[in-house]
Amino acid sequence: HKETFSQRFFKEPCLSYPFIIGRTFFHHKEAFVKQKGSSDVKVCLSVCVLSSSGSKVLVHFVNQSGVKSSVFVTEGETLLDVVIKKNLDISGFGACEGTLACSTCHLIFEESVYDKLEPMVDEEVDMLDLAYGLTKTSRLGCQVTVERWMDGMTVHVPQEIKDQRGKQEAVRSK
């Protein structure tokens, strides 16, 4: 039985370290591979594994027009990912694609849900300070990861969304 490259790669002693961003576990491994007739080539491999069980959670979204969409989502996804993957009708949502450079994925949570969410990072607080319709239960969808206990929760999109990356116009409900 001949080993595959990846089997050999992960057996070899080389730099290997895990790191976590949000609730996603990354494993990064680096190695130098000898090639015939040339110098060593550095090979890097990163593996992303969601730390969730992959169970389905029911989440209700209420858009700017008051229309409610109920979707089953995989535990471990961000709410921004859910809106994009499920193609929900939310105008202007997620303009920066989750890089914390805008506040277009601004969502308003029920207080009972908000109180259980992980604390905000400073960058999220800064972006929310610039958001329209800020409430005491506002969060950015790109920073909230769906967990099993959220099953059945309802989140609301504010009436106005503003892209903080230099655009001055706001997306408003009709």
Strand content of the residues, in percent?
25-35%
Q: Helix and strand string, N-terminal first?
A: HEEEEEHEHHEEEE
Q: State the secondary-structure class.
A: alpha+beta
CATH fold category name of the domain at 56-156: Ubiquitin-like (UB roll)
Q: Which bin fits the share of residues in helices?
A: 10-25%
What is the CATH top level name of the domain at 56-156? Alpha Beta
Q: What is the secondary structure topology, with strand pairs?
A:
Elements: H1 5-11, E1 16-21, E2 24-33, E3 41-50, E4 56-62, E5 68-74, H2 79-85, E6 106-109, H3 111-114, H4 122-129, E7 138-140, E8 153-156, E9 160-162, E10 170-172
Cofactor: [2Fe-2S] cluster
Main location: mitochondrion
Protein name: Ferredoxin 1b
List keywords for this structure.
174 residues; disordered C terminus; iron-sulfur; 10 strands; electron transport; five-stranded mixed beta sheet; electron transfer activity; 4 helices; metal-binding; alpha+beta
